[in-house]
Design a protein that fits this description.
The protein is mainly alpha-helical. It has helices at residues 2-9, 12-29, 42-53, 55-60, 63-68, 72-99, 106-115, 121-164, 172-192, 197-222, 230-235, 246-252, 255-260, 277-305, 310-313, 321-330, 333-367, 374-377, 386-400, 402-405, 407-434, 448-469, 486-503. It has a single domain, classed as Amino acid/polyamine transporter I (Up-down Bundle), CATH 1.20.1740. Helices cover 70% and strands 0% of the residues. The longest helix is centred in the N-terminal third of the chain and has 44 residues, at 121-164. Keywords: Membrane, Transmembrane, Transmembrane helix, Transport.
Length: 524
């Protein structure tokens, strides 16, 4: 009892310091020295994950694709289907992040699972190769998904400007300049506000909530384009718009919700800045699906009930359906711009969160000497990976130049973001399942011997289908412009990864060591 009272009287700062020391000791057991301050709690990690999902942008940006995929039924039922399937993915990632709470994330999990805790030279060599390739693909996914958010943001802005100036058409270089401004603004916020980012995460969650409620009320109250009954809003399906067979068009409608929740696994890169990461990161991953799902329903249902004529939506400027729908349904330019300004806020917070996590991923992979000039990209400035943040921003801006030469090639890079992240997920999940889930069975947070394997199998099947779906054109017939070159671009990136490994990575002595299953203690 005396010990309990002493702990109760202990100052909160001292308690947090002691806890951070324990967590840093556990991190050292995983092979790393702590570089970050642990300033994030479950609440801020959850808010950051919700900011990454960014429901109004995640669903609103590619909304036109969902309409092409069949309309209201594809949007509504497709969302419910994706929530179940991505719930299995989130659960699978939650177990792995609990077992290995490090910013290295999927490529570190892959190494430990592939090596099986064995120090055998052949096992380690094979595990290093798998881990390196997975890390390279994971890194590309982080960079290109950040690119997709910022360029999607630029397209939303251009589509909103078209509400006020219908005759204005942004040239490719004007769109590029908007994109560059977004990249630089995001960089400035991430760098200058690093110590306040947990508060930014809270603001992001608040903005998402306010935006969803504002859109739901604004569209439901005005409905200038008319209202649909429940049979149409929840069950109308037109499978002819995509050009695919009628039944398959439904799967095209899965793309917007799948894109929305595609990047939630990036939150694992924040494990080294979180208190109780072995529990709080998994809880955030599991919470974002139901919370984000409810927000998505509140966002989507008013749109389905007030949807303007589909043929008009298909002609929306810059393929941005959301600004057109909001303007048409509200019947006022000023009101539409106000609503879209809220969406811009959500998208900016999404860009900030994804850029932060991408910089942590870049730092972690560089820390393991896996990229050229690793010592630069893994350097710290005032306890933040400034050089890695610069690299993420520069890579985005350079890839943005591709849009000047080929919009179809640029679209491929956007699709690659989702596909590469999905590959980053599926490799460790599959390896864990085939290893009999020995590692995750000893994690502080795990789904147990029955639910866990079922979730793993569902996640593997869903991700495998996603890899195909995001590599397909969204409509037929296929032209040079509408063709999806994601598989070609991803193959090229994977080829570069192989070349880097054999010319550089293998020589860099990838400093990972196998960890026996029972080596890490979580009791205290």
């Amino acid at each position: 009892m005396k010990e309990t009272n002493e702990k109760a009287d202990e100052p909160l700062a001292t308690s947090h310091t002691r806890r951070a020391s324990i967590e840093d000791m556990r991190l050292s057991e995983l092979g790393y020295v702590a570089s970050f301050q642990r300033t994030r709690s479950f609440k801020t990690i959850l808010f950051m994950t919700l900011a990454i999902a960014a429901v109004p942008y995640g669903l609103g940006g590619p909304l036109l694709v969902g309409i092409i995929g069949g309309g209201p039924l594809s949007l509504f039922v497709g969302l419910l289907v994706v929530l179940v399937l991505d719930g299995a993915v989130a659960l699978s990632l939650a177990e792995l992040s609990s077992r290995y709470p490090t910013s290295a994330g999927p490529y570190y999990w892959t190494f430990q699972l592939a090596s099986g805790g064995s120090a055998n030279l052949n096992s380690r060599s094979r595990a290093v190769l798998y881990s390196y390739l997975n890390g390279w693909i994971w890194l590309i996914g982080n960079w290109t998904i950040a690119l997709s958010v910022n360029f999607g943001f630029a397209s939303l802005i251009a589509g909103t400007i078209a509400i006020y100036i219908p005759d204005w058409t942004a040239t490719e270089w004007q769109l590029l300049l908007i994109f560059y401004c977004i990249c630089l603004l995001t960089f400035a916020i991430c760098f200058l506000s690093d110590r306040f980012l947990p508060m930014v995460d809270t603001a992001a969650a608040t903005t998402t909530l306010v935006t969803v409620v504002a859109i739901a009320i604004a569209l439901s109250v005005t409905a200038k384009a008319g209202r649909h009954d429940a049979a149409y809003a929840l069950g109308h399906y037109d499978g002819s718009l995509s050009g695919y067979p009628t039944g398959f068009s439904f799967f095209i409608g899965l793309l917007p919700p799948a894109y929305t929740f595609s990047a939630i696994g990036m939150i694992t890169s924040m494990a080294e800045e979180c208190r109780h990461p072995e529990k709080e990161v998994p809880k955030a991953l599991m919470s974002v699906i139901p919370i984000g799902g409810v927000a998505a329903l509140f966002f989507l249902l008013p749109i389905c009930f007030t949807l303007p004529p589909v043929e008009d939506i298909l002609a929306a400027p810059y393929s941005q359906a959301l600004p057109y729908i909001v303007h048409t349904v509200m019947g006022t330019r000023a009101g539409a711009v106000i609503i879209m300004t809220f969406v811009f806020g959500v998208t900016l917070f999404c860009s900030i969160s994804i850029t932060i996590t991408a910089s942590r991923c870049t730092f972690a992979f560089s820390r393991d000497k896996a990229v050229p000039f690793w010592s630069l990209w893994s350097s710290m400035y005032h306890r933040q990976p400034f050089a890695a943040l610069v690299l993420v921003t520069v890579v985005e801006m350079l890839l943005g130049l591709i849009n000047l030469g080929s919009s179809s090639a640029f679209t491929a890079f956007v699709s690659v973001g989702v596909v590469a992240l999905a590959l980053g997920y599926i490799i460790p999940i599959t390896t864990s399942l085939f290893n009999g889930r020995r590692e995750v069975s000893v994690a502080p947070w795990n789904a147990g011997p029955w639910l866990g394997p079922v979730a793993n199998v569902v996640a593997i099947l869903w991700i495998s289908f996603e890899l195909v779906l995001f590599s397909m054109p969204t409509s037929l017939p296929v032209t040079e412009v509408s063709m999806n070159y994601a598989s070609v671009v991803l193959t090229g990136f994977a080829g570069l990864g192989v070349i880097f490994y054999y010319t550089y990575g293998r020589k860099s002595k990838f400093p990972l060591s196998p960890i026996p299953i029972d080596s890490t203690s979580y009791s205290c």
